[in-house]
Specification:
Blueprint: H1 4-8, H2 12-24, H3 27-37, H4 42-49, H5 53-67, H6 72-93
Length: 94
């Protein structure tokens, strides 16, 4: 059985808030988010970006806060759902 908290993660209200949060991310937060989504560790991301792993973790926490996500899995799931809905809306406009 799927926990209701997992289902609640993708309510329309949370997705709107997450979409607004994505628009508020700084360039560095976008870079960190992209690298973490690709599966890079904080240490690997830090080496490429020229910052400390601790700073990467701080950016990750900031991203989670702006997306109102409890963890990266939830953040990635909401981003994927936002993208899915955007593509679906775009194909309906054709």
């Amino acid at each position: 059985m799927v926990k209701s908290s997992l289902l609640d993660a993708y309510t329309p209200e949370r997705l709107v808030a997450a979409k607004e949060g994505l628009l508020r991310l700084t360039n560095r937060e976008h870079e960190v988010l992209y690298r973490l989504i690709r599966g890079e560790t904080a240490e690997a991301s830090a080496a490429v970006l020229g910052i400390s792993a601790r700073t990467v973790e701080a950016h990750r926490q900031s991203v989670l806060g702006k997306l109102n996500a409890r963890n990266m899995v939830e953040a990635v799931g909401m981003i994927a759902e936002i993208e899915r809905q955007s593509h679906a809306a775009g194909s309906k406009a054709d």
